[in-house]
Here is the input.
Amino acid sequence: MIESLASLLMVLVVLALGPYVVAVMDRLVATAPRGALASDVWLGPLSRAAWLLTQHANATEAPDWQAWRLAPALYLALAAVGLALVPWSPTLIATDLVTSVVLWGSVEALATVVIFLHGWSANAVLPLIGAYRYVALGLSYILISMFVLIGAALPAESLQLTQVVASQESLWNVVRQPLGLPLFLVVGLGLTFWGPLNLADSTDLAGGTAAEVSGPSRLVWECARAVMLVAFSGIAATAFLGGWLGPWLPGPVWVLLKTLFVLALLLWLGQWLPRVAPERCVTLMWIVLLPLSFVDLVWAGVLALWA
Amino acid sequence: MELLTLVIILALTLSAGLFIQAWPLRHQPQPSYSQRIPFLGGGTPDTHAWNRYHIRYYPMTLLLIAFEMEMMFMYPWAVVFVEKGMMAVMEMGMFLAILSVGIVYAWREGVFRWQ
Amino acid sequence: MAVSWLRQLAARSCVPVYPVWGEHDEALLATLVLSTQIELVDSPRHASVLLVVGEIPATLRDGLKHVHDQLPSPFAVVWFRGAPLIALNAPIHVDEADRLVDTLIRTHRELMLGQRDSASRLLPDEPPNPWEGLGDDGHGGEGMMGGTPYGRPMAMNMQDDLRDGLTLDSLTFRLGPFYPALPSGLCAEITLQGDVIQSWETRHGALPQRLAPVFYAARERPVPIAELELARARYHLVQLYRGLHLAGLERIARHALSLARQLSTASRLDGLRRQLVRSGIFHLAAMDGGQLDTEMAARLGGPAARAAGLDADLRMDDASYQRLGFRPQCRTDGTVRARWEQRLAEIDQSLQLARQAEPDGLHTANTEAVETPRGPWSAKPPQDASALLDQLLPGLEWDEAMTLIASLDSREVAETSGRANI
Here is the structure.
């Protein structure tokens, strides 16, 4: 009971702090080598959130009101489900299902639906293009994600994330299956339409699915995206970086450090890579990355039998 | 217990997400029609945006269905993989090989291009 | 007082500004982009201040009114060196460039703290069409067809698609004149099927641009080559900024702009070029298309023409440039990629020429014909070539189209340098 409450609290704390941490880290990563740090790097995200709360919510002529308001909230809820699946220690975990890998897969699939809904419900051209374009990406990365995660589940003989961590006692998956983490990072960029895979809210569409959104709705949308980034980093740290495993420090601290590491990596990629053209993106996913994920799976399978 | 926690988290975040959007809206009037025109850099649309949209990647979606069917087989397979040993490798290897041929064929047919 | 601290905090935020560019100096863009307290946004929905730079021609005022009304309240308008459209509510007007950033920040603060009312809407609060409420669901038409449900007709079209011949709905709308991915002033009527452009009709060309004063001076008297070439490199770097911003490489884009601002003969392009190559932009973005044929390339002139293999550059006719051993650089294929590579090469070349010319204080010899960074200026300045887009864009996917437009500098060059730089 105490453990459940503690883990619930943990999820809520990460949920509340996540967007702030992502905003600050993104700025730190952006200015890192030059050292020209903006003065408001710490207060900036908070004042921006305050501004979004005071700005009025926009409307279009005939939007689908329910769907338009529901989409950001649902995306946030999906991100929270992802966070709930992250084990902080063998016992400190909000939702320790025997099928948690499957549940995470469904979070990824539903995210595509929610992001599509966000763009579609405004009833405006630019968000609509962003929405349909995102679906092409969503349908492409989901398979890569599945193969890579199954690869991580093979040595554990289980679809339970705590078991997946336990199976990495001798060697972390990032070493054992070297293709796994890089491929999974691509999935993370797609899931949060971040940086090079920002096909949904891109600059050529004046903000894409968010082009018509202002005020509190935009705040929720951006927070949800940031929390999803954190949740994804948590899952990646669990599946590939050995979760709570590590010397000297207590488990939850290791999970936190590893999550922040993956997060920084994603933000760095987001700063340094250009947006991929949609057609090229789909081809790249199916022709290069998907076969690579097959290789990863076969590699993981052979190694699991051999061990 | 696990599912209860999950439902609590789901309900909390969903209602928080809706509340943050709804609460500041209490005193806001509906925006004027001139504000509500979809943003097109000062231009205007002729029609509503909802339409029978031409999805350019439709052949790719068919290919996806083939793989999604495979996933249903793959989850249980992953759990019994080590126990079944070489047989499981062969089974999945054959399955993947067949699907890979599908990808190559689709690529040759230009399925991943915007039609 | 719960609202009060929220507003206090909001007043301290970075100011989200939606810019509408009339006639302006490119230096202003760098000032705004590189300011840490200003954020230029791509959609008016994301802004609290609308910044109108320079005079907006009468033909584009309707577009400006639409954009103006699309900012969610509370919002304010700042007019920079141009007459406000309406004189209501004490419009905020600035003339000096160094006061602009402060004014933007102060305006945002005042808005947030409630010391200034939100600007009022310019257009009437009416639905685009009356909704007549006929039919079973009140959609206003007969059966499933026609009418204006919720003020607009539904998309309906029986035109075959350009690519696969499927007959689905197409969307017709007018884009611009102030769409961030298009040059300011460019207006087009576009028909889309899905995200592919079925037809593109340019309705209004891009606004004329004002080059750096040294280019106008070069047509009157010999000017130092070093100064002219640095101005040229600066121009190309600003173009590069626009292209990189569109590609989502905000960080490298800012680098290009800050390089432009501090440009001297000691500047090197190597760092920027390395960042670009490493980012993989030449392979990941849609850069294979947008090929210009010889006739189109000749019409555009300048770097676009040289990227398509035309060996034309007025600097070849200048005795001073000949002394420096100037040879124009060319690409052959005339694609989007070739145009960006051409621009990078020309920046490098300009820096090189500036370095060579500086020690002797070499001046230009020919004042009749000047090669501007946009194209040749002998009898008349480079003309607007936006109409080329009508041929180039149909059949392209949206992202491809916008990438192409960013690589293609089609604006006309203003005949005079306008008001003095402040």
In short: Chain C touches chain A through 56 residues (CB under 8 Å). The domain at 213-407 of chain C is CATH 1.10.645.10 (Cytochrome-c3 Hydrogenase; chain B). The beta strands of chain C are 15-21, 38-40, 49-53, 76-80, 92-94, 171-175, 187-193, 196-204, 370-371, 376-377.
